[in-house]
Every structure is written in C-alpha cells, then in structure tokens.
Amino acid sequence: MSDPIWIDIGPIDQLPTLGGRTLPVRGGQEIAVFRNSTGNIYALANRCPHKNGPLSEGIVHDTSVTCPLHNWRISLITGEALGEDKGCVPVIPVKIDAGRIYLDRAAALAGAV
Amino acid sequence: MNAPINMEKQLPGAGGKAGRLRLVVIGNGMAGCRAVEEILARDADRYDVTIFGAEPRVNYNRIMLSPVLAGDKTYEEIIINDRAWYDDNNIDLISGDAIIAIKRDAKEVVSASGRVTPYDKLLIASGSDPFIIPIPGHDLPAVVTFRDLDDVEKMLAAAEHGGNAVVIGGGLLGLEAAHGLSLRGMSVTVLHLMPTLMERQLDEAAGFLLKSELQRRGQTIITQADTAEILGDTHVTGVRLKDGTEIDADLVVMAVGIKPSVGLAKTAELAVERGIVVDDHMVTSDPDIFAVGECVQHRGTCYGLVAPLWEMCRALADFLTEKPSGYEGSATATKLKVSGIDLFSAGDFSGGEDVEDIVMRDATRGIYKRVLVKDNQLVGAVLYGDTVDGNWYFDLLKRGEDVSKIREALIFGQAFASGGETLDPDSAVAALSDDAEICGCNGVSKGQVVACINNGAGDLDGVRAGCKASASCGSCTNVVESLLSVTLGQDYGGARTITPMCNCTSFTHEDVRRNILEKNLTSIPQVMQELHWTTADGCASCRPALNYYLLCAWPEDHQEDPQSRFVNERMHANIQKDGTYSVVPRMWGGVTNPDELRAIADAADKYGARLLKVTGGQRLDIFGIKKGDLPAIWADLNAAGMVSGHAYGKSLRTVKTCVGSEWCRFGTQDSTGLGIKAEKMTWGSWMPHKFKIAVSGCPRNCAEASIKDLGIICVESGYELSVGGNGGIHLRGTDFLCKVESEEEALEYTAAFIQLYREEARYLDRTAPWVERVGMDYIKGRIVEDADGRRALQSRFLHAQSVLQKDPWAERVAGSEANLHRHIGEVRPLALMGSK
Known about the structure:
The complex is a heterodimer.
Chain A: E1 6-11, E2 19-23, E3 31-35, E4 41-45, E5 59-61, E6 64-66, E7 73-75, E8 94-97, E9 100-104, H1 105-108
Antiparallel strand pairs in A: 1-9, 2-3, 3-4, 5-6, 6-7, 8-9
Chain B: H1 7-10, E1 21-26, H2 30-42, E2 47-53, E3 59-60, H3 65-70, E4 79-81, H4 83-88, E5 92-95, E6 99-103, E7 108-111, E8 116-118, E9 121-124, E10 128-130, E11 143-145, H5 149-159, E12 164-168, H6 172-183, E13 187-192, H7 204-216, E14 220-223, E15 227-231, E16 238-241, E17 246-248, E18 251-254, E19 258-260, H8 263-267, E20 276-278, E21 289-291, E22 296-298, H9 306-320, E23 333-335, E24 343-347, E25 355-362, E26 367-374, E27 377-384, H10 390-399, H11 414-417, H12 425-430, E28 437-439, E29 444-445, H13 446-454, H14 460-467, H15 477-488, H16 509-518, H17 524-530, H18 542-553, H19 567-571, E30 574-575, E31 581-583, H20 594-606, E32 611-614, E33 620-625, H21 630-639, E34 652-657, H22 671-682, E35 691-696, E36 710-715, E37 718-723, E38 735-740, H23 743-760, H24 767-774, H25 776-785, H26 787-804, H27 808-813, H28 829-832
Parallel strand pairs in B: 1-2, 1-9, 2-5, 9-21, 11-18, 12-13, 12-18, 13-14, 20-22, 34-35, 35-36
Antiparallel strand pairs in B: 3-4, 6-7, 7-8, 10-19, 15-16, 16-17, 23-24, 24-27, 25-26, 26-27, 28-29, 30-31, 31-33, 32-33, 36-37, 37-38
Helix pairs in contact in B: 2-9, 7-17, 13-14, 13-15, 16-18, 22-23, 23-25, 23-26
C-alpha cells in the first residue's frame, strides 16, 4: 500500500480549541476541520448526514460535534451519527507534523473534478 | 525482520583485546550507559567498550536536572555512573571529545580532536537536541535551553542576580525550569503557544488546575502566546509577542521541545526520518550499527521520556548477546517534578465514542481524576492533585488487564478497587469503615450518615437536611444514595427524581447557579471542576447554559467563550437550512424610515439576498447571506445607523408596537414611543431564551401583547402589564401582573421582570413555562409587592446593560473574531497538480 499524499493546510493554531473551520474544495465537497480540547485535529465532510447542516458551526465536545441545525451528534473519529440517530459522513485522514495540519489528499479531493 | 547476527562468523575480523568485539558507544548519557550496563550484566566478556561523550563529565541522571535547578539535589547526587564504574568495567571513557563522523566502510569513528577509533559494533545514543525557535534575538547571551548541566549552571548564574525570567514553552520541561527559577528568586513568566499547559499530557481540565496553581504561586502564565522576538542588543532585555505585548526579561529559557539528534547518522547515510530508524532489535539500516534512546524512531514513534529508553536498552542487550527479545514500543507516563503539584498522565486520553470516560472531581481537595476505558481495558489516565494510584493505573494500562470487574470502583483507586472480586458500588460503600469520610465539604463520616438515616432520613433530601452530607458540592451524592440503599434495604424508595442540567452533571440548573454565586466561579472550566462535571469539556447542552449563567452572574468580568455559544449567537445571524445566514437589523419599535429601507434594499442587492421578508416582530429579514459576507453587510447596515437586531439570540428580540395615540383614533397612550424606549433599554441583553415584548395602544391589542413574554396594554388611566405569554407550540395568553400609571413605572417593572427571569429561569426556559412553574404569586411577590426588591432587580439589570449592551455587529466589523467568517483556506485540485 502506497503512502498517502498529504496536503498542508496550515498551522494548528488557526483553529480555536473546541471549534471548527471550513475548507472549501473547488469542484468538491467542503471540509470541516475541528480541534477538540485535547488538541486533536479532525476533518469531516462539512455536511451532516441528517439534513446537510454545516457541522463546522456546531459545538465540539470530547470527540464529537453537535450539528447546529438539529442537534445530531456526529463522531469526529468515525463520522458516524451517535446515539439513536443513524447516518455517516466521510472522514478525511489528518496528520499533524511540526504544528501543521495535513489532510489526506485523495480523501480531501474525493468527488472533486 | 532482522535475524540475530551470527557473532561467530564475524569474530575473525574482530580486533579487540583477547579477541573481543569492539563496541563503540556514541553518547555518554543515560541511554548509552544503560545499554552498556545491560550488555555487561548479560555477558561481561563479550565486548571491549569505548564510550564517547560530548560533555566533559561522567553519566548523570538528566531527568534530575530539574531538582538540581530547584536546589533539591546537587550534581553529585544525580551521578549514575561514577568514574569507578568505568574503571571497574574496563570501559574507555572519552569525555569532552564528541564524535564528528562515522566511516561505515572502514568501520571507524572520528572524534573532534581527530581521534580515529575502529569498531565492530557501533551504538548511537546521541539523544536529542533542544529545539530553538529561530526568532530574532535567539542567539543573545542569556537565552538558554534546558538540556544539560551547562544550561542549569547558566540559569543558576543568572538567577543569582534575581530579576525577570521568561520561559518559552509550557510543557513538562518549561514548567520545571520555571519552577526552579521561581524558587531561586526570579520573577517568572511562562509563555505557551497552546491554550492548555502541557497539552500533550493533560486535558483541558487538568491544565486549567495546573495553571491556576502556578499562578497562585506567583508565576505569570500566558497561554496562546506566540513569541515574535527576543529583545536586546548585547544582552536580553525582554520578549515581544506577536500581539505586541512586551515582557521584561533578564533571562530567557527556550523549552519548546526536543528533536532527535540525527546529524551523524544522516551524514553516514543511515536511514533517518524524524529519528534514526531502528527495528525491534534497535538495529539501524546498517546491521553493525545500533541506536537507542531519544535519537531513534521505532515503529514510527520517537520518545522523549526515560521509561522507553530502559526497555530499548534491554532489547538491544538481549540482541547483542544472542537472546533476542524484541522491543515493541512503550506506553508512556509522565509526572511533573514540581514539588507540591501532583500530576500524572499516561496513555491516550483523547477519548472517542467507544471509549468510556470516568471522571471524578473533588473540588475541596483540588483533585481531578480521569480514567479512560476501552474494550474493558484501561487506555489512559490523567490525575491531578492525587497521584498515588498513578503507577497502579499505569500498570493496568501496560498489562492490558480486563478491568470490567472493578469498573465501578476503578476511579477510586487501588485500595478501593482491589477490595474484592465483585464490587458493586453499594458493597464498596458497605465495606467502608464507620469513620470513613463521606462528605468532604461538611466533614461527615459514614457513621454519621448511617445514624442520620436510622433516625428517620429516608431519602437524599432527608440526609442533606439531617447531617449536611451531600448538601454542599454534591459530589458524594452517589455514595450517600448507596448508603441509603444499604441501610434501608427494601425500604429505600430509590434515588430522588431530580432533573440534572444534562448528563455531564448531577446538579440541577438551580444548584449550578447557586454555586456560581456562592463559590465565586467565573469560568466554564472552573465550574466544571468545582462542581465535579463527569465529562472533560461538557456537551452542547451545558456549555451554552454555563456561558449564560456566568455572564448573568458576573456581567463585568465575563469572558465570552464563542465555542460555548450556539451557532447563531456565535455568528450574530440566523443559520438557515442551506448553511447561509439571515440578517435582521434592529428597527426600534418596528419604526423605520426611507434611508434605512434604502440601505436594506442596497444591501440585499449587493450581497445577493434571495429573499427579503417582513417578520412577525415587525422587522425586515434579509435571507441567503454567506458567512464570509456577514461583516461586510453589517458594516453597510451600521453605516446607515442600524445595529444588530438580535433576531438570532437567546436575548431581547423585538418590541412590537402599534401606532398608538399619535395616529390611531382609538389610541390611549403613545405606545410606539414607549415601545421604542423599552427597546432602547433592553436591546442587547442576553436571556435564558428569546424574549419578546409588545406594546399596544389600546385593548384592541393590535401589537398582540397578550402572547408576548411581556405585554403592555395602554388604557386611558395607565398601563397594564402582563407576562408569560407565548404564541408558539403551546399557545398561552399572558398572566396579568399589575397596572401602573406612568411610562417610567412601566419601564421599571419591565426591567425588574426581565432581571428576575434572567437570574432565576433555567437556560432555554421561555417565560411561559417558568411563570407556570414558579407561579404568578411568586412573581407578583417579587415585582409588585416588594418595591425595594423590584428596584434592586431593575438596578442590576441596568448595570448589566451598562456593561454588555454593545452592538456585536460593530465589533465584528472592527475585526473581532475575524476567523469565524473566514475559511481556513481553499483546496484547488488543479493548482495542486501544478497546472494552474
């Protein structure tokens, strides 16, 4: 298995603790990047499986984000809806190196032209 | 991967004394010497050992440098291998002469002084180098790192003159340096880039406790501090941060991290990534060259702690003496060596939904414990304030032991959890001795609680009233309920039915608000710590509530936490189902004019609004605005004299009016004018939920005042006030509060009622359910019958407004929280491929 190609999207400190920001992909699906209280970074497609709510604007707690539209809780790790709700949003693999965030290029561009 | 090397085959080439193999060790530190010790212990006669060290010293315990700096130890006390050890084991120690090259073809190493030494086996234990941030001024004298004894001596020399020290880096090493310098009499400031101290080892809650304690001890801790420059021409005078803050400094310690020291290995063309790549037997890409310690990268991991080093040295020695065992990587644990601060962390505490998080907080004793369990195994632990069980947890973690049988008692520690095989909480509590303390706040023992129950207290409230156990912080509630269950058996009716704020706490909204005031709690992490939250950072229910309760309790000192606001309040606009926002400028009392309407029309055109709609609250709602355009449209609306309409907030929404006596032939009073006054007084105030006011000029009630949170209906003889109405899911007409004679009184009563609601309703309670719960008699008692109380409420409201009544749009237009409106970047697939 070949190593993934990583895209550098900048330093960790652009993200507020317990917050998210958006990363549009030209021709593709916008990505939401999150930082939780332990400093871990996660990236998901910015689209709640319920009604496409922008997860980037939700409240982050532990390893989940609560969708701002209807309070679905989505796992930042697996992209799956938690609790009683069912659904899943694509996860983009993230790595951190020297304080910078890298996204898996193939996953980030999934579906892009 | 690498089979053990057959030593016999290589013997003929060996050139050591008595046919021994020559083992050369680069690095006279803890890893190099430990490896030699391990090898000698297995087979003392196999190798002739030569150790090169860059420092002119014997091997000392580097992790004890902090106590040396703090004055708890001397250099002599931290020596591990004295000169006699080298002599007794016939080891050639060449100290103060660093190796500068490895010649793999000739199997020789060359030292700085030109000495050429042949080897059969070479061990690289070059450790790590401190990371230096290449900012201006980093090469000034009195800018030091914290890595070896020379650094400590430089710091001690600087500390003799007192003055100010700035430590860059709030990790383990930086905090230990800060502690030492502080004890040596310097005034210390710690700068940390991240929001949480020691963020690699601690979660936010423990980091908060640590920061508070260090500040209490007189250190200045600045988090999210990005250093721009070290100031001074010939000597250090200060440090400047990127935000412009300048801090005086006579000494700057850079403790921002370490990097594996790989220069030699790289030049010798060994496989090097972040560290020198080794396999499970510590063999590098050259089968005769080995590496251990902080310079290596094993299975993708580089370690900066001491415990993995011992394990690597064992694996190496096993391999070099032909009993290969293999190193499989280490779980690591950290303790902070700052006297009086007990802190322990091990494993992975990043959580996850299949990870069970068990949190215990004891505010009285300053304790925070968190253990994480996954698949019935302990995977992580963070302990603050009480670390006696750290090693036990670490042991459980390393052994991967099944903890399901002790799960309930796990958080209480070894003494508690090891009591028996089948511990349920009740039997654990039953096993406690009579004088065991149950309630730390009120000093109540188990015997006293049991006596109280036997004297007739049949439930939690009875115990709280009878002996005060669990009546303060509530953290022993579960234990008290176990005692009720154990003591009363089948007579116990079960736990009381209270509704806690959310699943993160056992406290009710009212408990939390009371505690915020009584204990002077001012931040969300502090509330969570003091009130024993069972989650690390709360949830989407409790965080906005806590943010509001703190704002309401301490309007002047409130530190806004945007991440604890629902999106609409964070963005000051209403999010729509497509992720765009709607924008509603304020129109006082529903009155507008041609200029405002033109500005709204222009803004709607300019920002491509897809819908312009009149709201039920007599405002204009501009739909379809992108989050990036919000500051610009607000700037345009501000320029036309309009401020935020707060159509998005748990706050005063609108004051709806009719035209009243100025125009209407039925009007009895100036309802429009009163509505505008009420709106000018109340706009921008945050509330438990949205709050709507209406003022009608006569009982025909065209402003629909009888379904508002507060309605004013003008009559010939004055103003009738009523409250608690709602036109939503459950239609509810207002309840009559009182009739007053003047506008001033109407405004006074309005302010007082709002403040009572702000102070006493639960977050997300509209006035209607709140009024039903507490009853109109109570409301009237507070607002109508108690004139002093009413005026006190009014004055608290007006005071809060004097601090918090600000146009959030204008603040955003001026640049605050700009990142909330910006993308982090954009991915352009074509540009990435270089064919723009």
